[in-house]
Each structure stands twice: as structure tokens, then as C-alpha cells.
Design a protein that fits this description.
globular; eight-stranded mixed β-sheet; alpha+beta; 13 helices; 327 residues; three-stranded mixed β-sheet
């Protein structure tokens, strides 16, 4: 079974609340595609420092929103010229190849060539033959279902994106470019695509890839559910959006092959002990920063901690990179 949900609202907290409600359902047989738009919103990853990623004061003074999602990855900009998509599927039916294919086939109907780059970007060939990013994706595993969501850049305001997002020079250097503008592309620059006329191709490719007709769920009815109302309030709260970052000052930053890291820590100088630590990262691993914080807090500032036996080799390498900022 496949299902379709199409939002009729542009409030980011409500839209992401519906997404998280869908993800919480103990579903075992249905794959859901959810399409939604946000009004002028900077979306940051679960473990990111909002003040290092976004000009929060400027954004909010101009009627925009700061929203923190529950997946890893970096900051992205949404406006109504773009379209967001979510795939929610039980673990037995979750298939990133199929999910990316839905997106690629829909864009391909406009005569454009696309390819998936790494784990989380989709690129499109521009008029000069260069491959440029038009979709950033992030992923999350829940108790019952898994999530794959992303943004399709169609006719977003790149000037606003550059004004609101604070992209670190190290990240730009890593990609061999000089500005955000050279890294991304609006699909409307390459073909006659709008955030409205791409909806039917997405629905068509969704049904084609999965080989069946999609059942349409009522978005307005979902918004009235008590769970959704509660989730929307939580996502809008300063506690979730800003966390403790207002009281921290960044001390260490670095860019590794797996993502950027920004670390803030307090040290009891008399005892040589780390009393508190907070780590922001755009890594796709949402657990690595919490794990590093747990290991470092209460430890000696003079000697690196032992590596937990339970971590994977990939996690071990990431932790070693993080620890190198302290020791």
C-alpha cells in the first residue's frame, strides 16, 4: 500500500509535526509520501548550533522561522518557491534507492539529468555541464518506521539563503567553491519547473516506482489530532529550537571528512576536569555528538578518555576526530 499527504499550510512547525506524527504510527504495510512547503524558514539539524548556522535575529525580524528537525545533517533554507518531500516507511519497505528514484524520475520528466551524490545530495546537470545540488536529504530511524526527507530547490530566493545562512569558509573550501550560489541551483533556471507543476510528476513517479495507486490522506484532519497539535508546540518552543546555545561560546571548530564540528566546553581549572560540553555537528549521525558529550563530561582535560568497546569502527574514527579538538 502507498499513501499520499499534501500539506495546505506553510507553517514549518505544523508541517514537521505532521511528518513526525506519521513517523510515530506503528505502520507495517504502507509507504507514505508527504509533500509540503514552508514560509521563509531556516531548518537546522538536530545537533547544530543555531547561532553558528543562521543569522537568527535577521531571519526572525523579517518574519521568518528557525526550525530544528530531528534528523542529522546541515542547515537548509526553505521558502514557498521550493517543495519539501518526506518518505515514511516501515523498516521492511524502506528503500532509499526507490525513494531517490521517485525524485529523479519526476525531475527527469522535465528533460533534466540527475544523480545522487554521496549519501544525501541530489545533483542536476546545468547548462554548462556542471553538476549542481538541487536537493539535500536527511534520514532518521524510529521505533516503527524510518524517515527520508529533503528539499527540492525550484525557485527559492538564493539571496535570502545567503543572507540567513552562515556557511563556514572551511566547508566552502572543502567543496572547492567560493560561495553558496555556486554550489546550488534552482531547477527553474534549467527548465520550466515550479513548486506547483512538479507535484503531479512526483505523484506519478511515486505510483510508477511502487506499482500501485496512492491513497490520499486528509492533511487538515491530521492537523486536528491532539498528538500533532502537541508536536507543533514543541517544535516551536525556544527550548527545542535554541537549546542551551545562547549561554555557550564556541571554542573549537573543525571540518572533517564526515562533517563539521563545533565544540563548547567548560573546565574546572583547579581539578583539571571537563564540567560541561556541548557539540554541534552537521554529521548525518545524530547520536555521535551525544555520545562524545557523555564520554568527555567529567573527564580529565589532560588525558584522552578510553574508547567504549561497544562503538563501531566508523564511530570510533569520528570520536577520535572529535577528541582531537581537546587533546
Amino acid at each position: 500500500m502507498i499513501r499520499l499527504v499534501i500539506s495546505n499550510q506553510t507553517n514549518p512547525y505544523l508541517n514537521i509535526a505532521v511528518e513526525n506524527y506519521l513517523l510515530s504510527l506503528p505502520e507495517t504495510e504502507a509507504v507514505t509520501m508527504y509533500l509540503w512547503k514552508n514560509h521563509r524558514t531556516v531548518v537546522i539539524g538536530q545537533n547544530q548550533n543555531p547561532f553558528a548556522e543562521c543569522n537568527v535575529d535577521l531571519l526572525e525580524s523579517e518574519g521568518g522561522y528557525l526550525m530544528r528537525r530531528k534528523t542529522g545533517g546541515g542547515a537548509v533554507y526553505h521558502d514557498q518557491g521550493n517543495l519539501n518531500f518526506s518518505f515514511v516507511a516501515p523498516k521492511s519497505l524502506y528503500d532509499q534507492t526507490k525513494q531517490f528514484s521517485v525524485l529523479q524520475q519526476a525531475v527527469g520528466q522535465f528533460g533534466l539529468y540527475t544523480e545522487v551524490s554521496g549519501r544525501n545530495d541530489v545533483l542536476c546537470r546545468d547548462h554548462e555541464g556542471a553538476m549542481r545540488k538541487f536537493s539535500g536529504n536527511a534520514f532518521n530511524k524510529n521505533r516503527y518506521q524510518d524517515l527520508h526527507h529533503g528539499t527540492i530547490l525550484i525557485k527559492g530566493n538564493i539571496d535570502d539563503l545567503q543572507r540567513y545562512l552562515l556557511v563556514k569558509p572551511a566547508k566552502l573550501h572543502k567543496h572547492g567553491v567560493e560561495s553558496v550560489r555556486s554550489r546550488v541551483v534552482n531547477l527553474s533556471e534549467l527548465a520550466d519547473i515550479t513548486s506547483e507543476n512538479i507535484v503531479m510528476p512526483l505523484i506519478g513517479s511515486f505510483e510508477k516506482v511502487y506499482g500501485e495507486k496512492a491513497e490520499l490522506l486528509d492533511f487538515s484532519a491530521l492537523c486536528k489530532k491532539e498528538e500533532v497539535v502537541k508536536l507543533a508546540s514543541e517544535f516551536a518552543s525556544d527550548e527545542w529550537r535554541l537549546g542551551r546555545w545562547r549561554s555557550f561560546q564556541s571554542q573549537k571548530t573543525a571540518q572533517f571528512s564526515w562533517g563539521g564540528v563545533e565544540m563548547s566546553l567548560d573546565v574546572d581549572q583547579t581539578k583539571g576536569v571537563i564540567t560541561s560540553v556541548q557539540i554541534a555537528t552537521d554529521s548525518l549521525s545524530v547520536s555521535i555528538s551525544e555520545l562524545a558529550e557523555q564520554i568527555l563530561t567529567g573527564g580529565s582535560i589532560h588525558q584522552a578518555p578510553d574508547m567504549p568497546l561497544s562503538v563501531s569502527e566508523e564511530e570510533k574514527a569520528m570520536l577520535q576526530d572529535i577528541f582531537s579538538l581537546v587533546y
